[in-house]
Amino acid sequence: MAGVTGMRTLLEQRPDPGAVPGIDHVDRFRAQAGLIAWDGEALARVRLASDLARVLHVAALLEEDTTITTRQASSLGLERSDDLAVFLPQWALEEDEHGRALRALLSQQVYDPPACRPASVPHRRRLVARVPAHLLGHVPSVPFVFCVLGAAAEYVATSLYAELARQAPVPAVEQLLRSIARQEARHFAFFLAAARLRGDAMSDLEGRLSRRVLAAVWEPIGVPTLGRAAWLEVFAGWLADEHLRQRLEMMDRVVDSVPHLAGMRLMGTFLEDLP
Predict the structure, then answer these.
(1) 122 versus 185: which is more confidently predicted?
(2) Rounded to an integer, what distance in angstroms lies between the CA atom of residue 24 and that of residue 221?
(3) What is the pLDDT at residue 161?
């Protein structure tokens, strides 16, 4: 992760606070795990407005990016945590299914897809840092930061899908987007609980380092993939919607409630800096 200075001071072996069997958030996740249901033939018959199709195109890209994230999490050794070992493979399957459903919906649409950055550029999208990955796997704050970033991303995804469902042109699309939103909300709940669990076990020093990392690397989903200019081109109109903007601003109440993160205001700061 970019901007991780002083991380070597924390390179000491400690038990991962997530490595505890029988955690409630794991049981809750397991109880509702499963792929969404969708009708590809019905979705292929739908015709979408081009601006909606462009947003869903970005959403499909982000769903597909989960495979990259889970590979990086594995390389960092995050699957040593009992809860993440259960969550990550199922999360990847569920997000990949979201991508397939969205691709089916987009297959017959006419729109200009937004340009993405080259895959080699957005290193933060892959949780790659200046500190070597084999060292990051031993830093206690990395699983915490990973879970906070996951919670923030899933909160934004849930809010966006709920808004898209509200504006869906036909029931088949509304049902799909609401199904995805519900599953993203489950993912958000898992990440948030996992972050709080880890935050409770962290020292003040680890908390301060985590705040610096989060302030340096966090961006709303889609920005690392598209770049800020292309992201604004796609989402500027949606951010003008007061209902959606208020929902996004509420992310700060949630993230700032995690131990060590009071007053971070990640989303509020980002929105205030927009042109």
Answers:
(1) 185
(2) 27
(3) 96
